[in-house]
Amino acid sequence: MQSNAFPAYRGRFEYVCLGCGQRLPGDSLFYTCPHCGGVFLLEDLNFAELKLTSGQGWRDIFDERAKTANPKLRGIFRYYELLAPIFEEEDIVYLGEGLTPIVAASKALEAYVGQPLAYKNDGQNPSASFKDRGMACAFSFLKWLCRKNNWDEVLTVCASTGDTSAAAALYAAYVGEPLKSVVLLPHGKVTPEQLSQPLGSGARVLELPGVFDDCMKVVELLAENYRVALLNSKNSWRILGQESYAFEVAQWYNWDVSDLALFVPIGNAGNVTAIMAGFLKMHDLGIIEKLPRIFGVQSEHADPVYRYYSKPIDQRNYAAVEVKPSVAQAAMIGNPVSFPRVKALVEKYTALAGDQAFNVVQVKEQDIIESMLLANRHGHIACTQGGECLAGLRKAKEAKLISANELAVLDATAHSLKFSGFQQMYFANTYPAGYGIAPKTELSNKPELLLPENARSGVDAKEFAKLGAQAVVDRLGLQKK
Question: DSSP of 269-311, one letter per residue?
């Protein structure tokens, strides 16, 4: 096929409720089932047509598209037929999202951890987080809907701990009319760096006291009673876009994922849901022959999914938890809206790949922040959620849940600069008691002033250079050539 040609295949989608099985047309805005309140997965009713192409055929198609000059096929829609194949080329929104690199750990880090590992740097997406994958798909769907229905105004709304609002505001600003963006944030629970993003994109930012779960309940009520486009992970089209993470991992490793173990922070459970769904889809089409193992990771300060899967099957009972402050702020969610999706997909996943194909590990806050520091001191750009994944790998290794021949692929969901404040709090030892973090002085890193503030005053540049150079020599103990 020609790599620049836009695909001819078109799917036909329905929402399928995971609670009661109710089906609703996919060309409408639905987030929760009007019959039972359950959440949806999207199903392509034409999916069987894709099986007419062999697994090798699909691998060849996606590898050929890697050469494309067509911007609409350069990002997540390289995998158009596997994502949301109802859009026309004009509907697709592309801001450079997707195709983020997987960076192997340095030899020193690998030796320290005692396990082969790599980071997938999803912080290199346009708004500096993985949420852009889902937003590219969700906003393409909204463009398609607006064109189809001649809508003259649609208000997009989301609750957020930071990354969702940044991505939603960015994509809304790019698409423009008829879309307008409003984001709802828990007051004081979003880093200044993340707060600056929706403000800079021109979104209307509204804050409420409480935590993310409180804001989520508000936007759910709005979506149920008003014509607004909800952009949290209850939006099934957003989850479809995030499946691209799985497709990219498979293609990066030449479609052989048999010895991979993926570590994913759970948060609102949308990403781990999408990643499982993506691998299941590829397996069904014969694109991959074996499913990789998946480890969800949760902080002990927000761990409802861990608590559920830590019990024997006959004793499992899901319950929300009250969260405590967490440095993995994007994952500080006590009642993930996508948990029913996780449960349904884990059942399918483990039926195909065995009980050990999916695990959830719980980690301490101290280990999260120190694992982030460890990763970044070895050349990575991991956020606190990336630190959570490394802490999860170390916990899995300690519990003998991962074998020495497996390659751990860790999800750095956002750019480290979004969470630089937590790093600074560690260096300055200023964490409030609720975090339960006691910084170690040997891990602190601070700038060192070499000369008094007034050393430059009244001294010409040449003389000051000599003073400065001598101060460096004295501090570092340098020897002359």
Answer: SHHHHHHHHHHHHHHHTTSSSSPPEEEEEEETTS-HHHHHHTS
pLDDT (tens digit per residue) in 298-308 = 999 999 999 99
Phi-psi group of 361: left, alpha or beta (phi > 0 → left; psi -120 to 50 → alpha; rest → beta): beta
pLDDT digits (tens, 9 = 90+) for 112-159: 999 999 999 999 999 999 999 999 999 999 999 999 999 989 999 998
pLDDT at 1: 57
CA distances from 206 to 102, 131, 159, 414 (A): 36, 20, 10, 23
Cα distance between residue 259 and residue 115, in whole Å: 13
pLDDT tens-digit series, residues 366-388: 999 999 999 999 999 999 999 99
List Cβ neighbours of 481 (8 Å cut-off, separation of 6 or more).
none
Which whole-number Å values give the CA distances from 185 to 157, 213, 416, in the listed order? 11, 10, 21
Q: Where are the domains of the chain?
A: 102-126+239-441, 448-481
Model pTM score: 0.95
**Residue 422 pLDDT > 70:** yes
Spell out the residues 6+ positions from residue 362 whose beta carbon is closer than 8 angstroms to its own.
297, 298, 299, 300, 303, 306, 310, 395
Contact status, residue 133 vs residue 76, Cβ threshold 8 Å:
yes
Instruction: Look at residue 465 and tell me whether its pLDDT is greater than 90.
Output: yes
Enumerate the H helices of 354-419 as residue ranges: 365-376, 384-398
DSSP letter string, 81-144 = GGS-TT--GGG---SS-S---EEEPPHHHHHHHTS-EEEEEGGGSTTSBTHHHHHHHHHHHHHH
Q: How far apart are CA 481 and CA 474, in angstroms?
A: 15
| CATH code reported for the domain at 102-126+239-441 | 3.40.50.1100
Average pLDDT along the chain: 95
Q: What is the gyration radius of the CA atoms in the chain, in angstroms? A: 24
Residue 321, token pair as written in the block: 């938890």
